[in-house]
Amino acid sequence: MIDFPEIENLTRKTSxxxxxxxxxxxxxxxxxxxxxxELEEAFTPNLDxxxxxxxxxxxxxxxxxxxxxxxxxxxxxxxxxxxKYQVGRGVLEALGLGIDLTANQIAIRGNFALMNADGVITDxxxxxxxxDISSSLVKILSKISIPDFEIxxxxxxxxxxxxxxxGENDAxxxxxxxxxxxxxxxxxxxxxxxxxxxxxxxxxxxxxxxxSQARELLRDxxxxxxxxxxxxSKVPKFPSMNEKYKLNPIxxxxxxxxxxxxxxxxxxxxxxxxxxxxxIAELKSASKLDNDFFFLHYKPADAAGEDGDRKAKVRTLEExxxxxxxxxxxxxxxxxxxGDHATPAILAAHSWHHVPLLINTSFTKGDGQGSFSEKxxxxxxxxxIKAKSIMMLALAHAxxxxxxxx
Length: 406
Known about the structure:
29% of the residues lie in helices and 19% in strands. It is an alpha/beta fold.
């Protein structure tokens, strides 16, 4: 899980509670007009005040220069080495939807997309079509058949859907065993699904057949005329947070993928939350239970960043700031506010930049940071650390780590 031998021998059960709030896509970057990042521009009085009472710094989601997906970004925060513990996006979506995958099932995350007459993707998210529209498209895709595979297609939310292929034999254990069809950027053509190993040719052929049939079925649809597939994988086996840390964790999120990440780490998941207000209400109720670790997810900042909408990202950060008093009133012994990665609006995508990190406990007297931002946190006491080390700091502050050695 982390780069420390037999970490479970150092951990101990205590009554203290850890709250980890993950602001998806928290980090940003300055633009030429303002010379400020989105966080610097945003009005966040509650976060600014909290920064002055906390230990602050910056985190590296995976490694220098590596742009992470949300999967490795979150797994790092939960203390898993994202290089060692890899998982496809499809599996995370399936777990978040409550689907227990078997060894012969392959889960795939799909996007409805728009493509021009030349076969070039013009919008990877089909203008973020509503679930009402995409639900009818899912019904169309459910008509597809592929020899030797059972097919299940299910709506995730908005432009996102899940595809599960069930074959006669168990899927390979390595990841990835075939490549995605999503090129990752607008302005490019969809990719063919290619194999990473010869023995996965049948899976690649099945994926390509599904895409080809979907393209024909959606050819004249004005909302989405193409699909993009990624995160093609089977469910892996991870050691749980209880096994490694002796924690009894709960995960609270509004999107299935993040609930899937929580479930993969062994958390009890609480979903079906319409928005962050509903998540806060769930957290207030859950905090009265005996659980000692709580993961709370905030999505809007990432969505705005991916859309390249700087004003919207600033606005979502300001909206998050308004929830800080409620979050503080939970009374967690250790409060962590972090991000899984940066999503600068200027890039309209995830990036490799460092991400602000804050830890607030009775042992943090405060760094005296003037504001919650990348620039201010560069001089914080936590310094620049890898995200997978954050969990160790949380455990230490919570009194859940024993002394190492004699």
